[in-house]
Amino acid sequence: MDISMPKFNGLDAALSLSRTNPRTRLILLTRHNEQEYVAEALRCGVRGYVLKDQAASDLVRAIREVCNGQVYLSPGVSRAVVEAYTTPDQPKNTLSARERQVLQLIAEGKTTKDIAVLIHVSAKTVETHRARLMQKLGIHEIAGLVRYAIRKGLVQP
Q1: Full pLDDT tens readout for the chain, 157 residues
Q2: How many domains does the chain have?
Q3: Helix (H, G, I), strand (E, B) or coil at 71
Q4: Are strands 72-73 and 46-51 parallel, antiparallel or unpaired?
Q5: CA distance 14 to 17
Q6: Are residues 24 and 50 in the same domain?
Q7: Is 91 part of a structural domain of the chain?
Q8: Which of 118, 109, 44 is CA-nearest to residue 126?
Q9: What does the alpha-carbon distance between residue 65 and residue 73 come to, in Å, rounded to a whole number?
Q10: In terms of domains, do 69 and 112 share one?
Q11: Same domain, 47 and 106
Q12: Does the model's pTM come out above 0.85?
């Protein structure tokens, strides 16, 4: 799977799969080499993280390693892993899985009502998530949320 997928991004899908079936071994094939994505993927239960630009040389090896109970990270993300491990804890505007999902759906152009139906909550709950997103991210309009989601790779421009 990839981080950037429509309606349900790869990190949220990985977390859901890991919780539903902990024996499932997950590999992300993605273009994202940023520290926050690598660290979050590992926290979500991903055991293989392969960069798309290294897929030809890494994917088969990743599958073998992960099937044998190992963790595989493309060489291109090793710096991100080291930085995540060695950087002192900092206050972060970390979004919950549900907030990420709502942000992605907003950026995909879904209405509040559409989002509520898709994620099985009330429209008021979606509005609360949107307000919390704006507060956490310091963004005050929907267009800003869309730009943020594009910058973070949750949706494609």
Answers
A1: 778 777 777 888 888 888 899 889 999 998 888 887 888 888 889 999 999 988 888 899 999 999 999 999 998 887 777 776 776 655 455 788 888 889 999 999 999 999 999 989 999 999 999 999 999 999 999 999 999 988 887 887 7
A2: 2
A3: coil
A4: parallel
A5: 5
A6: yes
A7: no
A8: 118
A9: 10
A10: no
A11: no
A12: no
Residue in 41, 47, 35 with CA at minimum distance from that of residue 13: 41
29 neighbors 50 (Cβ within 8 angstroms): yes
Domain that holds residue 141: 97-151
Token couple for 97: 């899985």
**Which among 86, 110, 133 is the end of a domain?**
86
Select from 65, 75, 81, 74 the least CA-distant residue to 29: 74
Same domain for 113 and 58: no
φ/ψ of 16, rounded to 5, equals -65, -45
Burial classification of residue 81, based on how many CB atoms lie within 10 Å of its CB (0-12 exposed, 13-18 middle, 19 or more buried)? middle
Q: At what angle do helices 78-86 and 35-43 cross, to 10 degrees?
A: 80
Q: What are phi and psi of 96, to 5 degrees?
A: -70, 165
Tokens of 106: 């907003």
Strand arrangement, sheet containing 72-73: 26-30, 46-51, 72-73
